[in-house]
Amino acid sequence: MDIQIITAGKDLPIDRAYALSMTIKSFKGRRDVEVHLFRHAWDPEEEEAVEWDQLLAEKGMSEAEEASGSRRVILEALTAEERDRIVDYLKEHYTGRLTGVCSMPIPFPVPVGLVALSDMSEGKTIGFIHFERIPHFNLGIALRGFYDLGQHPPIVETEGNPS
User: Fold this and answer.
1) Where does residue 29 rank: exposed (0-12), middle (13-18), buried (19+ CB within 10 A)?
2) Which of 6, 13, 80, 125 is 20 to 30 A away from residue 19, measured at CA?
């Protein structure tokens, strides 16, 4: 398993600043499925304590409706300590099933108008891994994984029968 942890080249404006993804060798009939890991829940007090105007690209927009997704993108991010705990968990439980894990800081300031992963809806090819349903997942982080199977090739190509 290839693990790439890209650290910030400068001081970050907030500790909650890391994106994390994993690539699963084989998942739901697809090959090399990229799964974006994120926090799907947080304490409302944490959200209130953030200085949004320092983190968003457009000053004075922190309370605007069009900034709500961008605020959630930041709240979905992980701290370096959370990221490291999750990477250790993945190494312990899924080394043989993953081809890679990648983490990097999200770019600041965050543009206004983004759609958060927690705002996405499950559909035909889009879904979530609910880590709270995994019996041995006990990191105390409200973790989910977002995937889009439509972005990955099938393991077995199907050939249509001519009529």
Assistant:
1) exposed
2) 125
DSSP notation for 102-136: EEEEPPSSBPTT---GGG----SSEEEEEGGGSTT
Whole-angstrom distance, CA of residue 57 vs CA of residue 111: 5
Residue of 17, 27, 140, 148 whose CA lies nearest to 89: 140
pLDDT 10s digits, 20-78: 999 999 999 999 999 999 999 999 999 999 999 999 998 888 788 999 999 999 999 99
Whether a cis peptide bond, with omega within 30° of 0, leads into 109 is yes
Rounded CA separation 88/66 (Å): 36
pLDDT value at residue 163: 44
Cβ-contact 35, 97 below 8 angstroms: no
AA identity, residue 76: E
* CA pair distance 51, 62, nearest whole angstrom: 9
Nearest one of 30, 21, 26, 25 to 150, comparing CA atoms: 30
Residue closest to 14 by CA, chosen among 64, 61, 49:
49
Q: Look at residue 156 in the predicted model and tell me its pLDDT.
A: 80
Beta strands in the chain (DSSP E): 2-5, 18-27, 30-39, 98-105, 126-130, 143-148
